[in-house]
Queue: 4 jobs
Job 1
Amino acid sequence: MSYFRKHLDLIAGYQPGEQPQDGQYIKLNTNENPYPPSPLVVETLMENLRRHRLSYYPSPLCDELREQASTVYGYPSSWILVGNGSDELLSIVFRAFLGNGDRVLYPYPTYTLYRVLALLQEAIYEEIPFEKDYSIPEKILTDQAQLKVICNPNSPTGTFIPTPIIENLLKNSCCPVVVDEAYVDFAYDNALSLLKRYPQLIILRTLSKSFSLAGIRVGFLIAQPEMIQGLLKMKDSYNVNWFSQKAATAALQDLPYMKNNVEKIKQTRQEFSQAMTKLGYEVLPSEANFVMVRKPGEGLKSEYLYLKKNWILVRYFPEWPDSLRISIGTDSNMQFLIHVLKNINKDHKDDL
């Protein structure tokens, strides 16, 4: 006997990448930043822990953090909603705009959490394949729905939709349009400039990637104030804890540190992409902190397992068996991965 709503029994929940806690693996599977957060984050936390009363609730709207985010993103704090990671903000958006039978459109392949969130609302999700060049499908540009979502740069492909194309989508859409910019600090452009002109636009940002703060779970939703006021009705009372608010505020105060790490990752991404191409892999052009490598027509599960055997975790998706998504780590991380892959054929022969 099930006590759950009937449709929940038919849903498979989102499966995050492996998160071993023993520190033995080189983790290149969940797009974390290989570099530590700004030293200012640790200094701020240590200073505040000595004098803060943890028995008090945190600021429900993250007032200090919103003000700091305002200086970074260029919009007043009334345009910003803070979440327990951008995943919580996605959940808020899906709950706010989708109900039984409503439609959400997004290009595919993409972040599979969108599918799960739609199913939880008993909504109809339409996964429309990208064009061959990974541009937005015409159907998403022209069809109407209750919600449209664009992950940009896209995960797992790393490909990027230019801002003029995003604006064309907004011109043709009467519904809310979410542009999920979790990886945009590694890209050459973003959609922030469109916010004033399009009241249906919702932009998501996170501190998990470029700011090296995946462990504290802080994200931002940026939209016009009327949109923010409506979405606040869906938010939990104290959704971001005091510790995370302080750490995030400090991180946003040290943008040069973040930008320096981003530049290092972009340089490593370029060098790693060239090395993988020489090994015979197709490497999709990436504007994120990861690359997707492919061998069309060949399964790459054996490579995934071989890397894992050698203490390297990358992301294998059964839905796309000819591909691996590989996060960009340090130079030494990526050089070791290349070294391991060069030995894969030799080891396979030795096993025969």
Note: Residues 255-278 form the longest helix (24 residues).
Job 2
Amino acid sequence: MYATEHDIATLRKLQEVDRKVVSAKKEFKELPHRKAILEVRAKKDEVLKRKVQVQDMLDEAEGKLAAFVQEDELLSAKQDEITETLSQVQGDYRAVTAHTRDLDGVRKRREKVSLELSRVEEEVDKINPVMKQIMQALADLDAKERDLIASFQKVGGSLRAAIEEGEKARVSLAEQVDGELLKVYEKTRSACGGVALSEAHEGACSACRNTFDSSRMSKIRSQAPLATCPVCRRLLIVEGE
């Protein structure tokens, strides 16, 4: 296949650029940051679900606590009121008996409320540390996610820049190659895993490593400076063979 020295030199540069771009794209795709970020976000979702559950428990317990505190305040006020009334009805047996009975009922209710208050306070005291742990876990996961994203942007940004630079260089180099030859190169690159060029070296293809007998080498030389490997079908640069 006919090709000038400039064509071959340019194709070599083009292939090197293509290799670097493919390598950078592969490295970008395989960056561990993406998987790590998704794992952190999945963990955050789990912790957030747990937070909602614990927050519901805490809200319920604090609601009960507030209700019991309010009831105790009302009972305390009622107890003071009855005690004041008792001091004013001394000598009235029926009134004293009735108010004493009311006062006893209020005291008993306050005792029950006091027990419930203690129970609910213990419940709140147990839930609060759990919520604190959850909030700390979320803060830690947020920090980890930020670090991973920053690292991904740094490493990924460098790779994206390399890809963009390579693709620009590719356009420039492609413009320097004969149009028909470029079509053959592109077709071969697509069919051969991204590597279109090989070299005939010591009677073998430098890409697939297959050796050629004298008959095949004679045919390959006749196609110089650019032949086709009879095995892997890559473009075979023939120089000094």
Note: The chain has a mean pLDDT of 93.
Job 3
Amino acid sequence: VETGQGDRPGVDVVMNSVEIIRNGKEARNFDAVKIMSDYFAEEEEAIAAMKKMVSDFAQEIATQKESAEALPSGLKMIVLKEGTGEKPKIGQKVMVNYAGYLEDGSMFDSNYEEVARKYERYDEERKLGGGYEPFPMDYSPDARLIPGFKEGLLSMKVGDKIRVFIPPHLGYGQQGSGPIPPNSNLVFDLEITGMFGE
């Protein structure tokens, strides 16, 4: 083939075939079809395991909701861990860990790193920005939170961990929000880890 400027071919070059010569035992034993087949089988297993985990959790929260303490507002809650700290005063800031779920067991947000990883929602940028640390929140009836989250939070003392079952009218209602469909029942795990600034 004649070459021109920059050692480029003067005419288009067309390859009609490529022959890969496999040297060595590993190269001769390479089975691309098997490797791809194994990869897709592993992916299917991972998807099935995730679906089972979500389904099992949905069953767990449905069972817990049946026996949860019902408040006059319609909020239901159970205590997952009894804390030993003091009850914050209205107007103070508390440090909160949370995980939010839909009733089908799927997680839509959490600042628990282990929960985010478990649900394959971990985000390295969020980690770098401190997004998996306890979050400062106002301990106040005027806090800018959905009503059910706020009501659950105001029932807690430092060290408590609770699960709240929030009906749509105490959540995002008819409009929904982001990944939360309209009229969704929500489930939140809430934990007050301490007071802001301590």
Note: The helical segments are 25-29, 32-67, 113-118, 124-128, 147-154.
Job 4
Amino acid sequence: IRDFELMKQHNINTVRLSHYPQSRRFYELCSEYGLYVYDEANIESHAMYYGERSLSRHPEWKEAHMERTVNMFERNKNHPSVTFWSLGNEAGNGINFFYTYKFVKDQDRGLMDRPVNYERALWDHNTDMYVPQYPSAAWLNEIGRKGSDRPVVPSEYSHAMGNSNGNLDIQWEAIYKYPNLQGGYIWDWVDQAMEAYDEQGRLYYTYGGDYGVDTPSDGNFLCNGVVGPDRTPHPAMAEVKYVHQNFAFEAVDLTTGKIRIINRHYFTHSDAFHFQYNITENGSTVATGELPVTLAPQHSAEIEIPIAGITPKAGGEYFLNFEVTRKEATELLPAGHQVALEQFRLPLEREREQYASNIVNPGWKVTEKSEVIEIKRSQLLFRFDKKQGIVSSYKVRGIDYFDHGFGLQPNFWRAPNDNDYGNGAPARLQVWKESSRDFRITDVKTYEEGNKMVLEVTYLLAAGNLYDVKYTLYPDGIVHTASTFHSTDMKEEKITASEATLTATYSPEASAARKASSILNVPRIGMRFRLPVTMEKVSWFGRGPGENYIDRASGSKVGLYSSSAADLYFPYVRPQENGHRSDTRWVALTNGKKGLMVLADNTIGFNALHNSVEDFDSEEATHRPYQWNNFNREEIESRNDAEARNRKPRQTHINDITPRDFVEVCVDMKQQGVAGYNSWGARPLPEYTLPANREYRWGFTLIPLDDLRETREKALWSY
């Protein structure tokens, strides 16, 4: 029942039975709770591929195809929830599928005359719908514009392997825009891994490669669900819920508060739901109201929210938020369950005013030694280690904010996610891992600027370009950090894909995706530092509450949120990049009261975890073997660790992740997207990447806090 609860909670209304029928009870529950079933015959001969070797083209295999199709149809034909039939999956197309198609069409014509589909039929006659696999948003828009002679419903898309599902929102923009596009089936529902416990009693989940030496394995490739093995929803489920919601809100004129509400339901009236709105100023509610919405299914109406009385203040940012909740409980959902939300940024904000310290003569003292520069004044110490290339101490009013000297330093690397490994990023972009350690300093200088002290540092990165950091120290301990990433013309390393990878599944844009640009991209442009372990309480004004990334953020709205470094961590079955929050105005890390605020010049992304970037980087787990396929003896005998380095992930698990006695904070101008069209070559879209042949300027301010409540006032200033 938990699966049905989760699907209903996240606006999922249909399930594809991949790649075989389920138990009878499953169909009964789908009929009871209301899920459309895409029933699929247990036919797949993927290993024979799709040409002349395909079993679908050989008459001697006709009986085997027919038996499985007949069994599915006769067994399940009377279940009301069965809405579509599928002839199988990834088995090529030929005469045997022409026979199975004709059988189902002939038999069902006197019953419900349901559509019969088959993915490998493509546009051939033996599929009533076009059900491609892994199309991009661009392809969906193209087929939407061109039109089609049958509905288009991807039978697999948005491959959910690990930290994934990027671009789902723009795929659904196309689906809602064009009537011939009618939804899709995310691949897939649950991480298929087995619960286990290590010798210390710690839980982890086993996957391919854990079941014996030299055993054939696909590694963690089956860990590609939107929920974990224990049914914990992945953070991407916030995006899934948002794109599937059945009420839409469109801005008609935000200057007057005019909004169009659309009831996307086909059978349900809006009277079954409560509609509420609120207006926030820097995350705090300043107005709220109920909306008397009366909309029949597939109808829309315009409303007007009273915003004329709001006078924006300096540093104020205003959002109009909508929420739709159920009036009454259903069998699986409680009354008050949120079914839809939306947010609009109002054109009301005013720029922040410039901050100025009232300390006229701060009495700065600068001490420069061979390896260290120290900047001091009353109750302030700022130490830069020239040898390491990092800020090793930042001490204000007796509190040293950096743990064990691990202070501000450039950071261009993230722990590769599963899609990164699929597209070769760890090898292609290795130069940025090198650029995030063993820093080479080419210039350091200090000078006074009014009542402030400035420290400028220039780094020569491994990619051959420069990275400038300007630290501006205010007399009261505030530090503004301004950075410039200078461009580089270095090209990325070429990564080839195997034939098996290239033909693993049909994708309408697979060829174009493989012709990716040779321009070198940067995984992230940022800084990182470590705070004492006690400063683990996290508050922020940005997108949340859950993990989100620049290409998976539409379901995560801007607001005030609070959590902890422990709870910001998400345990993907194979550890990888996790816990990021994007579009952040400020984040504060405290011990419950005192702490440090990071205020963005514009917006930033951040991670704040009890582990380092390296802890989640598979390649750093040198005590674990690589994920070998072991498909044949020749492959086993030719295994080469040197060739696998940065090309294959290692066999790591969540019990390899032990919380450390610090909080590592990564502050990013931007981190590239997680991608998600597929996990065997698709990269983040260009708009969600950081091409290294451009210049980037960005900044943020570190503000010591005596009380978390100070953030509201501190955030109003520009530093």
Note: The chain has three domains: 2-233, 242-348, 372-611+659-718.
